[in-house]
Write a structure and sequence with these properties.
The protein has about 220 residues and is α+β, with helices and mostly antiparallel strands. It is built from 7 helices and 10 strands.
Length: about 220
């Protein structure tokens, strides 16, 4: 049986009528923005299921935009997210689509750049402001964003995981979960930890030979 917390019972502190359609949507937008690189000029929200049918009425559109602007679900500026995006010359587009066998409150957030390839994050709002991210630019993952996250891409060779694990252990950071996928000669590792990943850890890991991408998100529940 699941252990319910006060948060699960009362729901999140948020702006909007629905924790699933606003708080969860804002969290999805924010974590997608944290994962993506800066410099995007346009964001497309590909909406699935209930999100696609009710996003205007439930404020999902405002919440998603607020998230990719870096706003928390409880931020009063969430209501003005369309205007803030426009003031920052950020193009926004909502597209109703079918993303297959996913939770009804699912969105694919696609970031577009002028000088590099598009980048996307796919995830669902599963109730009570909680989210699950399933895919990062083609890499299948599964995490909730409640723990600090480290996303690493590296040349697939012996010893990289061991070196990363050793650095975390030396800095007294416990690994909660680890997921590794491989494609050709590249590997992607998603690591959730029980405590904050400090800058020194990030810098040490980035110096490991073969690392091509490193992103740390010290996420906490908003």
């Amino acid at each position: 049986m699941k252990d319910y917390t006060v948060f699960d019972i009362l729901g999140p502190v948020m702006i909007g009528p629905s924790s699933s359609h606003t708080a969860g949507a804002a969290r999805l937008g924010k974590i997608a923005k944290d994962i993506a690189s800066e410099g995007f000029y346009k964001v497309e929200f590909h909406l699935h299921g209930s999100f696609a049918k009710t996003y205007r009425g439930h404020g999902t559109d405002k919440a998603l935009i607020a998230g990719i602007l870096g706003l928390d679900p409880a931020d009063e500026k969430l209501k003005e997210s369309f205007k803030i995006a426009k003031d920052n010359n950020l193009e926004i587009e909502f597209i109703e689509t079918d993303l297959g066998h996913h939770h009804p409150n699912t969105v694919k957030i696609l970031f577009k750049y002028k000088d590099k390839d598009d980048f996307y994050v796919l995830g669902s709002s599963i109730g009570g402001g909680n989210i699950v991210v399933y895919n990062i630019n083609g890499d299948e993952v599964e995490f909730t964003g409640l723990n600090p996250i480290m996303l690493v891409k590296y040349k697939d060779k012996k010893g990289v995981i061991s070196k990363i694990s050793s650095i975390l252990s030396e800095m007294d950071i416990n690994i909660a979960t680890m997921q590794v996928s491989r494609e050709r000669n590249l590997a992607t590792m998603l690591c959730e930890t029980d405590s904050k990943i400090i800058k020194e850890v990030e810098e040490r890991i980035s110096r490991i030979e073969g690392i091509t991408y490193l992103r740390v998100i010290n996420t906490i529940r908003s």
